[in-house]
């Protein structure tokens, strides 16, 4: 997946910004996060016979302006859930390796962590999250993360932004070099939360234009 | 290094009059903040009945042969949402007043909603109250279910608490708890539950529900304190037992099962037949309930005949403070020392 260089990402933060029309699309396939990797026996037995992570793919586009990156993610969801009251919200996340070679399915490890930016339909603020393995997530270093979502015509369009540079335990994205991206999607109307989600089966290479 | 100990409670169902003083003591102490309007960390419901949340005994969770069992996520409507009354409109508007009633239409469920139903047929109808709090289980299904490790059991007293800084509101705990004693706060986005008045116990003060109970119903103490009433009632006399032990979570709240007057025949004469069907009590407390009822009846008869009964004396609890094991401090005194501590710090 290519991250095209543009003058400023300010023109891309709106999910419906016209500029996205001329950016290459990459389809990333998703699968249900494996039941066997769910961190507690309760979650495993309670979802054993219950379908989840039914989403098969999401469409991604990405641009950067030398300082920040914007990633547009589009996926089908006929029944949006904003998580009002007791409901579970729809959600999505984009993940990058911090260092080493984290296993995406294992959500990294203490030696090879990963960082993700999470959007939830119930919240205005995006979250930066650091993961060093399943069930280990902690607030991640601030990377100027934002996420804006819009639902229409049976699909969500969410634009994530963050700074390219990341200090400390955060993913540092460098123009002219390659890294990797992984995604996750939660379908709130199916009570999907935590590890009950659709995920990309493995990392997708991400090449940032110089 | 602290010793692993377990605080426990014994609730004598023969003395509970369903006055809800415990419920209100808890409500005003712990669940009077935003997002907690519909929460009752202590409930007193009528048995037989659907209870709180409605139909909780059929919602699953817990363990079977050691394996976690799926559970249903209880909804706020099943606990009963809070409502307010149109006091201003009904009472302070002169002649053109509304009828006093709940704002926003009639509610259709709440704690102890099925109070007047009970079981059995007249003249052999029966009912009793069951106060419930979190059971602070030895094997907490909520703790096992949480993917974030946000629930833990304190070593020093076995109290099960939720770390709300780690809780993300996933609510697997709510599903997994077979007693459905966990609530979800939509304002904070976290799960919340009875904390066994941990900050009070730390100061030697009994739980609010125990101390405020006018019926001296709720014994408190450490399970391993051989001199305390809890140990005596649970282990020595074996008359206090867990509710639904089949869920395998090993609760640390125990109940003295209810006795009832004898049944009557059609002529109105007492007959040798249990008013509260033994299979119903079995379904609540398991097979240990039969021998417990027999012993309670025998000791009661002994006492009635003028004999001595340590068991009956313990249950009667003539000395109020004997109910609370080591937790006999008056909260008033703690408030004073806290004030002094703050003043010393400032001074």
Break the fold down into its secondary structure elements and pairings:
The complex is a heterodimer of chains A (210) and B (347).
Chain A: E1 2-5, E2 26-32, H1 41-47, E3 57-64, E4 68-76, E5 91-97, E6 114-120, E7 127-131, E8 138-139, E9 146-152, E10 155-163, E11 178-186, E12 198-200, E13 204-208
Parallel strand pairs in A: 1-3, 1-13
Antiparallel strand pairs in A: 2-3, 2-12, 3-4, 4-10, 5-6, 5-11, 6-7, 7-8, 9-10, 11-12, 11-13
Chain B: E1 7-12, H1 21-30, E2 43-47, E3 63-64, E4 67-68, H2 76-79, H3 87-91, E5 128-132, H4 141-145, E6 151-153, E7 160-162, H5 172-176, E8 182-185, E9 190-193, H6 198-201, H7 208-212, E10 218-222, H8 229-236, E11 241-242, E12 253-256, E13 263-264, E14 270-271, H9 278-285, H10 289-304, H11 310-316, H12 331-346
Parallel strand pairs in B: 1-12
Antiparallel strand pairs in B: 1-10, 2-5, 3-4, 6-7, 8-9, 11-12, 13-14
Characterization of the model:
The complex is a heterodimer of chains A (210) and B (347). Chain A has 210 residues and is mainly beta. Chain A has one domain (2-208): Sandwich (Immunoglobulin-like), CATH 2.60.40.1190. Chain A is built from one helix and 13 strands, in the order E-E-H-E-E-E-E-E-E-E-E-E-E-E. Chain A has one helix at 41-47, and strands spanning 2-5, 26-32, 57-64, 68-76, 91-97, 114-120, 127-131, 138-139, 146-152, 155-163, 178-186, 198-200, 204-208. In chain A, strands 1-3-2-12-11-13 form a six-stranded mixed β-barrel. The longest helix of chain A is centred in the N-terminal third of the chain and has 7 residues, at 41-47. Chain A is globular, with a radius of gyration of 16 Å. Chain A starts with a strand and ends with a strand. Chain B is an alpha+beta fold. Chain B has a single domain (7-84, 108-324), classed as Alpha-Beta Plaits, CATH 3.30.70. Helix content of chain B is 27%, strand content 14%. Chain B has helices spanning 21-30, 76-79, 87-91, 141-145, 172-176, 198-201, 208-212, 229-236, 278-285, 289-304, 310-316, 331-346; strands at 7-12, 43-47, 63-64, 67-68, 128-132, 151-153, 160-162, 182-185, 190-193, 218-222, 241-242, 253-256, 263-264, 270-271. A four-stranded mixed beta sheet of chain B has the order 10-1-12-11. In chain B, a hairpin with a 5-residue loop joins strand 13 and strand 14 (270-271). The longest helix of chain B is centred in the C-terminal third of the chain and has 16 residues, at 289-304. Chain B is globular and about 60 Å long. The chains are: A mainly beta (210), B alpha+beta (347). At the A-B interface, helix 1 of A face strand 4, helix 4 and helix 5 of B.
């Amino acid at each position: 997946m290519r991250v095209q260089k543009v003058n400023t990402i300010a023109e891309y933060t709106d999910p419906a910004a016209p500029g996205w029309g001329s950016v290459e699309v990459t389809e990333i396939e998703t699968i249900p996060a494996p039941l066997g990797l769910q961190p507690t026996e309760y979650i495993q037995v309670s979802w054993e016979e219950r379908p989840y992570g039914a989403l098969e793919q999401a469409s991604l586009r990405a641009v950067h302006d030398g300082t920040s990156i914007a990633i547009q993610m589009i996926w089908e969801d006929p029944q949006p859930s904003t998580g009002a009251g007791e409901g579970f919200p729809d959600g999505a996340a984009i993940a990058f390796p911090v260092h080493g070679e984290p296993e995406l399915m294992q959500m990294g490890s203490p030696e090879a962590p990963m960082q993700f930016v999470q959007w939830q339909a119930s919240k205005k603020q995006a979250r930066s999250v650091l993961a060093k393995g399943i069930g280990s997530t902690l607030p991640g270093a601030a990377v100027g993360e934002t996420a804006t979502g819009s639902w229409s015509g049976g699909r969500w369009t969410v634009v994530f932004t963050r700074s390219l540079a990341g200090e400390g335990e955060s993913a540092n994205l460098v123009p002219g070099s390659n890294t990797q991206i992984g995604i996750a999607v939660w379908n709130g109307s199916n009570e999907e939360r935590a590890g009950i989600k659709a995920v990309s089966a493995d990392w997708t290479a991400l090449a940032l234009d110089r | 290094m602290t010793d692993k100990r377990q605080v426990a409670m014994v609730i004598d169902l023969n003395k509970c009059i369903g006055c809800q003083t415990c419920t209100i003591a808890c409500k005003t102490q712990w669940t009077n903040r935003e997002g907690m309007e519909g929460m009752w960390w202590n409930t007193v419901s009528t048995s037989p009945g659907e209870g709180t949340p409605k139909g909780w005994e059929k919602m699953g969770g817990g363990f079977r042969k050691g394996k976690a069992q799926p559970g249903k996520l209880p909804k706020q409507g099943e606990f009963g949402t809070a409502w307010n009354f149109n006091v201003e409109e009904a009472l302070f508007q002169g002649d053109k007043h509304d009828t006093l009633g709940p704002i926003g239409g009639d509610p259709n469920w709440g704690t102890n909603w099925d109070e007047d139903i009970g079981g059995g047929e007249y003249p052999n109808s029966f009912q009793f109250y069951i106060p419930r709090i979190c059971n602070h289980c030895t094997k907490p299904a909520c703790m096992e279910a949480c993917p974030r490790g946000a629930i833990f059991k304190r070593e020093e007293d076995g109290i099960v608490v939720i770390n709300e800084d780690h809780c993300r509101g996933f609510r697997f705990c709510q599903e997994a708890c077979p007693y459905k004693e966990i609530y979800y706060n939509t304002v904070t986005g976290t799960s919340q539950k009875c904390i066994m008045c941990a900050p009070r116990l730390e100061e030697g003060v009994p739980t609010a529900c125990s101390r405020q109970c006018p019926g001296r119903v709720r014994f408190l103490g450490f399970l391993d304190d051989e001199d305390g009433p809890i140990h005596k009632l649970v282990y020595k006399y074996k008359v206090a037992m867990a509710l639904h032990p089949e869920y395998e979570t090993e609760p640390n709240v125990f109940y003295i099962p209810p006795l009832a007057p004898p049944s009557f025949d059609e002529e109105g004469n007492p007959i040798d037949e249990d008013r509260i069907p033994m299979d119903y009590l079995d379904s609540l407390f398991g097979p240990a309930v039969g021998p417990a009822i027999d012993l309670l009846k025998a000791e009661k008869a002994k006492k009635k005949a003028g004999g001595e009964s340590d068991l009956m004396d313990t249950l009667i609890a003539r000395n109020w403070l004997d109910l609370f094991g080591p937790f006999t401090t008056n909260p008033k005194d703690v408030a004073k020392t806290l004030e002094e501590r703050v003043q010393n710090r400032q001074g």
